[in-house]
Write a structure and sequence with these properties.
It comes from Roseovarius indicus. With 142 residues, this protein is mostly helical. The chain is built from six helices and three strands; from the N terminus they run αβααββααα.
């Protein structure tokens, strides 16, 4: 879907984060969008050149710059969100409202469990990840 709008995943993340936050310094944008610092400056320059992002001085720190969406960027985000909602609705069309709520709750639990597990792995300095973790399969019996 992002191909239709000629955006990469990283560019979409940056636009979506700025849509959510409003104004943000570069380091916050990179952190929230999960973009590597080495890629952020070039990504912002590209989005700025295309008219989606603007830079402005920080009101209380004249040395800092804040990034925000331009009107064109905000319009693009809304177009993408609209298309995404239509696509999601079509994909879940076979489910009742109750089943959709249940699906979202289950996905939320799986995502939270995944984040907790990843945090455990980060804190585990015994390097046992390779030895103890096998590839996941949705078809495996629990």
């Amino acid at each position: 879907m992002l191909d239709d709008f000629q955006l990469t995943v990283q560019e979409w993340r940056a636009l979506a984060v700025l849509d959510f936050l409003g104004d943000a310094p570069l380091y916050i944008l990179a952190q929230r969008a999960g973009i590597q610092k080495s890629q952020t400056s070039r990504l912002i320059a590209d989005l700025s050149k295309r008219g989606y992002i603007q830079r402005k001085r920080h009101p209380s720190d004249k040395r800092s710059t804040l990034l925000s969406l331009t009107e064109t960027g905000a319009d693009l985000v809304q177009q993408i969100l609209t298309q995404s909602r239509i696509r999601n609705r079509k994909m879940l069309d076979g489910l009742s409202d109750e089943e959709r709520v249940q699906l979202m709750a289950l996905l939320g639990k799986a995502i939270n469990s995944s984040f907790r597990y990843l945090e455990e792995l980060k804190q585990d300095d015994t390097d046992t990840y390779e030895e103890t973790t096998e590839p996941a399969s949705f078809f495996e019996e629990l």
